[in-house]
Write a structure and sequence with these properties.
Layout (H helix, E strand, L loop, with lengths): L10 H9 L17 H12 L14
Length: 62
């Protein structure tokens, strides 16, 4: 279930939001391609095991 969706207007706002989190694990898929869907799904499912929330951040570059 999605608790909140925020749209930071700058990199600084994104970083401030991340600094408020107590991060246990990070995984980055840089330059995601649709062929990476299975790996992304697997990583998300593995992170969802156990206690804690999973946060997804999508970034579109120019």
């Amino acid at each position: 279930m999605i608790s909140t969706v925020t749209k930071p207007k700058s990199k600084q706002e994104l970083i401030r939001s991340l600094q408020k989190q107590q991060i246990d694990q990070i995984e980055v898929f840089d330059r995601y391609h649709p062929s990476d869907t299975k790996a992304l799904d697997k990583a998300a499912k593995e992170m969802m095991r156990g206690a804690g929330d999973v946060t997804v951040i999508l970034v579109k570059t120019k």
